[in-house]
Structures
1.
Amino acid sequence: MEREQLLSMGFPDDLASQALAATGGKSILKATEWILGRNKSDSQTPDENPNSSPSPSPSPFQPKLDRFFHFQSKPSNPPQIQIQIQKQHCDTPSLPSPPSKRLRLEAENSPHQPLSERMRPRTVDDVVGQNHLLSHKSLLRSAIDSNRLPSIILWGPPGTGKTSIAKAIVNSSSQPSSYRFVSLSAVTAGVKDVRDVVEEARKIKVSKNMNSKRTLLFVDEVHRFNKSQQDSFLPVIEDGSIVLIGATTENPSFHLITPLLSRCRVLTLNPLQPSHVASLLNRAVADTGRGLAWSVGGASIEVSDDAIDFLSSNCDGDARVALNALEISAVTAAARVPIKQSVCKFEEEEHGESLVENNWVGSSQVTTVTLDDAKEALQSKHLAYDKAGEEHYNLISALHKSMRGSDADASIYWLARMLEGGEEPLYIARRLIRFASEDVGLADPNALVQAVACYQACHFLGMPECNVNLAQCVAYLALAPKSVSVYRAILAAQEVVRESVGQNEGVPLHLRNAPTKLMKELGYGKGYIYPPDNPSSSTQNYLPPSLQGYKFLN
């Protein structure tokens, strides 16, 4: 790729190859500077006075170089415009304030990165919404300042800054050069990848080089590693060969092994508030180096306050969702703006082409992102819900507790949250059947009939029609009288059985069935009083002798 660009500038094939070999072959800018510096030194003869200022003849490929690098030239007249000249036409966006050279090259080297990736915080001071972790007296900030990082697990919802904090820690350290940052994703990394990192960290640790770096290993989605992969971290964390920073959206208590948790500090990240998300969106709009302007080719762009408020309030605390929706809305808005054209004329010179006229057609126009653009980009409110994760259990717990507390309004709200999140209606119906016996029970035996009927209705209709069946059943159960006597009775009886109270002795003979003559001769069924024939008899015992007098149902 770099060689083809050098050839397109007019450099000879052998000279381009020499330049790439001399500069490492990764930077077109360094290769060009090497060629120009070489030509300048070759043009001087030994007889020339080094203090003189000769006027060497222009390079034969200088016109093409000028045209290739024309987009980096500084505009002389307002409005400030950067022009990339092509022979057939010129597409020239207007930039209100050109970014610095470093940020411009950085953005050009990663033109396809989404806005959320380009706007990652560089240091922990740029992280918003996690002050409880990054305040100046916090554990993590103190560890960063003292250059004594412990192994940590960052647990929080998506888009709250787990990866950003991990990457910013090294840049914020008092001695950033003392760390070797290695990043793995548990989604794509295998056992070999983990083993390679661990072995390399051990080699560095045992080396006698005083300047050896400490390995800081960041593992994204660490909960996806199996037990053996997590076990491989234990010895190297224990002896300090690596500092592990794991990021997970799942509850570490359920998905990470206990020995790993004992060697790491679990730090919980909070969902971002709308004000936090709004500050990130405004930062992306104002940043001309790597922000929103680069998403629309460097054009001047403004975002309405209504659009910022809408995105920050409807992303459910996920900054990644908000930033990517902002980028899409900006692209949508930019498509409405007429494309500016320029009339470019060239004249042939002895060694190539030079620009002699560049007249702009049309007036300067600013792209404005409106509320409608933001709504079109987001499509629907983002809901944090995982049918197999913690949020799934959080919401069903909220529904159950709201019905138990006889709050029909809250119950219907949590039901709606689950349905809008994509929950399977039959799962909810099964939970309602359980609730009808556990919390309503004998106070209203008809509740169980209602719950079973709701399950059948959901099975017959499916979503979205069965939403009203679920809502009716939820409201009925929430407003029904409550009794947990049956629920407590079965729990107490199971506890007695598990603890072998009464030694789990055999069934008393008078309660046993005697279908054969032999069993009757053994005393099965002897002394049993048939209640329909003796309704007033209350002397018969039904519990084992050791459990006489036990009360389970109150």
2.
Amino acid sequence: MSESKPPTPTPGDTYKGWLFKWTNYIKGYQRRWFVLSNGLLSYYRTQAEMGHTCRGTINLATANIAVEDSCSFVISNGGAQTYHLKASSEVERQRWITALELAKAKAVRMQAESDDSGDDCPSVPPTSGQGGGCRNSEVQSTLRTMTSKVEDLSTCNDLIVKHGSALQRSLSELEGIRGGGDMGDKIRQVTERATLFRITSNAMINACRDFLSLAQNHNKRWQKALQTERDQRIRLEETLEQLAKQHNHLERAFRGATVLPPSFSNPALGNKTGVSGKGDASDEDDDNEFFDAMEDPAEFITVPADPKYHRRSGSNVSGLSSETGMDDQSVNFDEQSLASNLESPQPLELEPVRQRRTRIPDKPNYYLNLWSIMKNCIGKELSKIPMPVNFNEPISMLQRLSEDLEYYELLDKAAKCQSSLEQMCYVAAFTVSSYSTTVHRTGKPFNPLLGETFELDRQKECGYRSLCEQVSHHPPAAAHHAMSEKGWSLRQEITLASKFRGKYLSIMPLGSIQCIFEKTNNHYSWKKVTTTVHNIIVGKLWIDQSGEIDVVNHRTGDRCHLKFAPYSYFSRDVPRKVTGVVTDQEGKAHYVLSGTWDEKMEFSRIMQSSKGENGTEGKQRTVYQTLKAKEIWRKNPLPDGAENMYYFSSLALTLNEPEEGVAPTDSRRRPDQRLMEDGRWDEANAEKQRLEEKQRIARREREREAVKAASSPEEADAQETGTEATEVSDESKYHSFTLSVLFNSAVCGILTKQ
């Protein structure tokens, strides 16, 4: 039984129905409920979601509608949004195309008329007390007039159809008559019916002219009234959103605190929540695969302290709750010390003595032919297949480690602190700042050769000197040591462990970082968090940092617990959020840190703390009353044109700059890295392959000599064979995984083109 065709939708109607939407190469087409209304095409997972969750919306006024085949079509608004849709049949697809074209035409016309309406249409101010009634009666009168005109048009249309059919019959009968006396009668009949058709057509034309004139007269006035209503609606929505945020914040504070001071009843607290909503969110993004992390409930809540804490003198602050564990002298001293550190200018003697470069050659736009890479791998051992430099950036992993010192000023300020708790705030901020350079850096650094070094001498400019060395080849490990004239030293030993989980790659740095301050002999240590590279197979690469860090002062027992929140589609917090609490050896909190690892960090002094009620998951949360937050670190802006220079920071641009007097093993002297920076990628690939093969030969020779020196000749041959087999097996596993990634990327590229 054939499906009855619904009436063709008019531009003002709401058109709804099921369509199949392309999501990604893993899920393919998924069934979604689409709604076309007021020039906007929105979609939902189910019809039940229409009241609360819109998965995506596209404006048809600026969209392009293209038909692909009998059932498929594409809607795109210039690249920002593209919907690949498929209907259940060709008839259903044509209904949607018709509805979309009508809606697009009306949206374009309405937008043009809205732009032209401006101030050239006089507004009619309502009279006092009766403005609303007069305006309403005017609209009703106009609507009745236009309805009457529409009825006239409908009547004329029926008459035209009737007389047109009669005229057509008469003409057919006239053609059938070859001669005779009936010819004159038939001609008169045709003439009469033609006259009726002309009269009806003229009436139709006049009715259309009247309707058009009436519509044009009232169009601009109605457009202006409609725009006024829209503006009022937007203001009302913004007001409701602010009220909802304030209500949410007050409700959370009420749940978390048993008793709050009267000052917390101020609704303005809602403006400090820092929660950013996600508008226009889609359930499937073709360029992103989200990290499936559920939002963890906050371990603590911060609220502004009572104003009395800002005005108290030294003799009065001693009345604070014993939970804070601090007296007034430490409060005043720490506040003054932190403020002086934040506002103190840089010493004049640290002015640069050498002009460093501010640019490198732009990244060439080379096309990566994955099929040619696969073709060149045929017949070769997996352990001898080189990976091209197209996936790299022109610096070594040793230089990437040295980038941790970009915000060395934080350690300089920490060295001047008298309080260990204050010093902990700067060390924690330095810990977070080392991740700020990774947000756009999806390129892979060059793997250092065994014995490769990198020296960063900035004593005359910044007062510190750094040295890195690759101390192990299999597994790769590096050691880093830095010393400063300002009284601090930093050392770290880093090796990496990775896990490939299909959609993303997790990189877990192993090893610890140690920082020692000579003046106070405070010894701090911490470890790095997990780095996650998303969209390994399909989509645009993006990086996230997640995990927890405990910065420990081994001399005093102070501790700072930092939490890097993983990105989550369900979270209402800002992306890349970092929070932390500084506690003393007894576990009493003194400072709260908050911010993002890619932008800035702030700290605030805790004046009072209290235990709240159990949260949503039974965890007891703490409410901290804090002073006004102050900025302790902010990311330096990227240089101009950084997107063409691998998103390098100002320090990263100088790391591979040639210098005189560096060691022969320095990373600046690597020929393949230098060729890549100069844009000669083909030569860099050849040189990289030569260096890697030379390192493999040297490694096998060292292992062969070690085996011979440790055992008899017969056992040496057997162990040598086993060692080489293990080496080939390990490298084969790595290259097998890399080639599978390349193969999947190539297949996805071809599918995208098709």
3.
Amino acid sequence: RIYYLSLEFYMGRTLQNTMVNLGLQNACDEAIYQLGLDLEELEEIEEDAGLGNGGLGRLAACFLDSMATLGLAAYGYGIRYEFGIFNQKIVNGWQVEEADDWLRYGNPWEKARPEYMLPVHFYGRVEHTPDGVKWLDTQVVLAMPYDTPVPGYKNNTVNTMRLWSAKAPNDFKLQDFNVGDYIEAVLDRNLAENISRVLYPNDNFFEGKELRLKQEYFVVAATLQDIIRRFKSSKFGCRDPVRTCFETFPDKVAIQLNDTHPALSIPELMRILVDVEKVDWDKAWEITKKTCAYTNHTVLPEALERWPVSMFEKLLPRHLEIIYAINQRHLDHVAALFPGDVDRLRRMSVIEEGDCKRINMAHLCVIGSHAVNGVARIHSEIVKQSVFKDFYELEPEKFQNKTNGITPRRWLLLCNPGLADTIVEKIGEEFLTDLSQLKKLLPLVSDEVFIRDVAKVKQENKLKFSAFLEKEYKVKINPSSMFDVHVKRIHEYKRQLLNCLHVVTLYNRIKRDPAKAFVPRTVMIGGKAAPGYHMAKLIIKLVTSIGDVVNHDPVVGDRLKVIFLENYRVSLAEKVIPAADLSQQISTAGTEASGTGNMKFMLNGALTIGTMDGANVEMAEEAGAENLFIFGLRVEDVEALDRKGYNAREYYDHLPELKQAVDQISSGFFSPKEPDCFKDIVNMLMHHDRFKVFADYEAYMQCQAQVDQLYRNPKEWTKKVIRNIACSGKFSSDRTITEYAREIWGVEPSDLQIPPPNIPRD
């Protein structure tokens, strides 16, 4: 059995996905229609399950779909947050957060399983006794499982996502009851139940809060008890009647750690094996390593989890001892191989010394796993060459690449039925479970009828999205303009600011020469900023402020519009991606581990403007670099520029259009009522821009001019679109999961349909 452990599952809505995977959508559509109702209207009522921040949580959701479709016995394990990612409101151009009370009207897809409730222990003290180690005087929180079905695509397989909710035990704060403060004691139950209250809204950023560490241990402790219970009760679990033999555990159980968030699985499994099951340490360590595998999702230093030792001492004292023991054996091993190399020992230790001693969770994961993977080829190389260089030198065979993917069921069939039908007409339906078959579209690249059909579907999607924007947000846009879309979490490394500089430059060009023919564009930027991330919130304010000026300038007319897409989430992605012409993937080379939005746009008939970063590199390889708009510094150039020293002023002084745009932002041209509103942005860009926005400005502007030029020739544009769609097959999460299954978990996927429940089995 495969256990995918993640603190995030960004599932979105479930109704349409369930109908699609069960092959029931047309039947339901018809039945609802005959009742005088509109299925689409019904679908719009469902809340998103927003239990994730972005890429990492959505990847987990795509993986669940693929694992079920590939017939794997796989379980997703996470937390049932009462409040998911906040709802974003824009007020006076600023982001305001609102609690996401997604369970307000109940959740019809989940089934509580109180019969499998489990205890989770916190705090307490450790006692070393003659009959082993005891963790005593702990506080107990109960973990209540809620199961959500995960149907495979038309194969009668249904897997389970099990999310844990925190419950206080009935004797919680017993001592308070005894002193007679009954009411206080009952109210204090909230303290325990707060563990599963809310998702931490940080994307690619570590915030060392105790409640977050509690969440991480909570999901791990409950899940591992469940895994071991299932292993012991399985008739294949063991020859041994009392099931104390864990020899076969790694053959029967694979645990995949989605980033370091569930890293405590490693010391927790050791604790259970050594303290509870009395397995000797070396055997337990061998079992743990063979069971666990770790996926790294980022190389940004501020995102790496480094927990204070003092927090562990208080919250998880036994786990701290186990981590020290793991680290000691690890460092002894390194010291034997590299005698006298004390700096190597310091670099490779799980414990970081300093004013505040910290536990480096990534190092713990690398040491405690049999496989470590990055999520795109370039990222996996960076992982080996920089982040985990010392570990790679020690065990190169441990490091792998597994390029991310997306499920073509949700991200084509469900969100873009028009395009899916057009493709089915030409090559049949098999591509939906074998996306590499899209290659069969290549001979049709110059087929006049097919070109017209693909262009027609895109235009219909754009009209539909335009109507949606008008209805929901009262904004009127030109549906024949180029839809230039930049949707993802707001972060400096993703460089929404570079897009802003392009928009301002475009605006200035129109103002300078209003008679000239410009390719009309609707620039849509969307995404949430972490509530505590000042710069990201300021970037949103800049986008909305630029929109206020550009959209109300009569000289511009409908040649340029800037729209901030409020409350970007899975259900909005399903609407905007099929309507996009241009996909912006413009992170500084070496910063975006993979990206998965890039793949969704490619599959849905948008062209990509992007840097050689993350999976963009492999997209360019699959489709041919000439079929993407690639620009800017490569990883090597970024490194060279770092060695030389990046000087923003050089670019500012030598590029008049850049200087004009920056000066306008700085002077309050876009914020006349608050002239120094954006001084922090300009100061950052000029003096401490880690992501080198100005260094790529000129190349970006030139590349955007090529985009305009091609867009003027709709037929050639659509040919490139078809080539992109035809070459997007690699980016199915079915391919990704097949690789995990074979190369990490040691299982074979199967495309067999199991018989439906109404047909008796042999």
